[in-house]
From TrEMBL:
Record's keyword annotation contains Signal: yes
Listed name of the protein: Polysaccharide export protein N-terminal domain-containing protein
Keyword Signal appears in the UniProt entry: yes
Keywords: Signal
Entries under PANTHER family matching the protein: POLYSACCHARIDE EXPORT PROTEIN GFCE-RELATED
Record GO terms (molecular function): polysaccharide transmembrane transporter activity
Annotated ranges, domain Polysaccharide export protein N-terminal: 12-73
A Pfam entry, by short name: Poly_export
Length: 339
């Protein structure tokens, strides 16, 4: 199914650290650039602190106008005031549950140069990374067992259930803006959903897996190419395709028919490491079988084993090399010297 292009961004809500520009006609003492405090409140001259965190710009503007009229600074039929966003700060949120990298993450982080530029402009900002979908992506993306119809957002003790399945089905979906301190919980269904194992706005585009394709144990890191044994593959790749990309498949059929590969993976349900061994011929014959040819997940490891024919060929090559006249004479001389 195509990735949804109908993601509707809900109006952003303010968070501690956000900056706004306030302009009031004939109210110069109130005008200026203001930053929301760590407690989520906005302090304006002569007014009680306004609760801004979790409010939209329009809601904060109405709250400010109400306080200005209530305190007798302006008449309702005369006041002209506005609140405009100047800078949407990065926020820290916590993501747990069925994601690949749960924990506390920072979203909407901006380069220093961009932040400096915002200080000189009048108004305006476009923080597309301060939404729920960006937080899930920042946590490594959702796992295949994620219940994306029942994602929970916890804010200041209040719970909200959100359905983001439209991102994967092509239906319109409302993306929720986040503020500092939000908690996101992604429930697990307890089983894999193959329709979630593909690149999307909720899943990783791709990742690297550990790859070993050595015939014999290497005597040194340099000969083993340690540090370069990472294979980049798109999300949704199965074991057979990863084996092909790692040069585990191919060659002369008579000498490679018994080649096999193993997959080292972590079970997301119990956290235990599991090792799966598959013969290359079985993978080729059952390419569409989810059990025999499983999907590769982030941080998996793949190792290739050569066939018995290949191993015997390498051993035979070593024996031939040993029995060459030059090697044989050198060996005899070495033994004679030692005696």
């Amino acid at each position: 199914m195509p990735i949804s292009k109908k993601i509707i961004l809900a109006p952003l809500t303010l968070s501690p650290g956000d900056r706004v520009r306030i302009a009031i006609q004939e109210g110069e003492e109130f005008n200026g650039i203001f930053e929301i405090n760590i407690d989520g409140k906005l302090n304006l001259p002569y007014l009680e602190p306004l609760m801004a965190a979790g409010q939209t710009i329009a809601q904060l503007e109405q709250q400010m106008i109400h306080q200005l009229i209530k305190n007798g600074f302006f008449r309702a039929d005369f006041i002209q005031a506005s609140v405009k966003p100047l800078q949407w700060r990065a926020v820290r949120v916590t993501v747990t549950g069925a994601v690949f990298q749960p924990g506390r993450i920072l979203i909407n982080d901006r380069p220093v140069a961009r932040q400096a530029q915002q200080q000189t402009q009048q108004t305006g900002d476009y923080p597309t990374k301060r939404y729920l979908s960006a937080a899930l992506k920042g946590a490594g993306g959702i796992r295949p067992d994620a219940d994306i119809k029942s994602i929970r957002l916890i804010r200041q003790g209040k719970h909200q259930t959100i359905d983001l399945s439209g991102i994967l089905t092509g239906e319109p979906v409302l993306d929720i803006p986040l503020i500092d301190g939000d908690q996101i919980v992604v429930p697990s269904l307890g089983y894999f959903q193959t329709e979630l194992i593909r690149p999307s706005q909720l899943t990783p585009p791709g990742f690297k897996v550990f790859m070993s394709n050595l015939v014999f144990p290497s005597p040194s890191n340099a000969q083993a190419s340690i540090g370069s044994g990472m294979l980049s593959i798109p999300y949704g790749t199965r074991l057979l395709r990863a084996a092909v990309a790692g040069n585990c498949v191919g060659g002369i059929q008579t000498t490679n028919a018994s080649r096999s590969t193993i997959l080292i993976s972590t079970n997301p349900f119990n956290g235990k490491t599991q090792v799966i061994k598959r013969a290359i011929e079985d993978l080729i014959a059952n390419a569409d079988d989810d059990i025999l040819n499983p999907y590769i997940m982030p941080n998996d490891g793949i190792a290739c084993y050569d066939s018995g024919m290949t191993s015997m060929r390498d051993i035979a090559g070593a024996l031939v090399n040993f029995l060459t006249p030059a090697v044989l004479i050198k060996t005899l001389l070495s033994n004679g010297t030692s005696n």
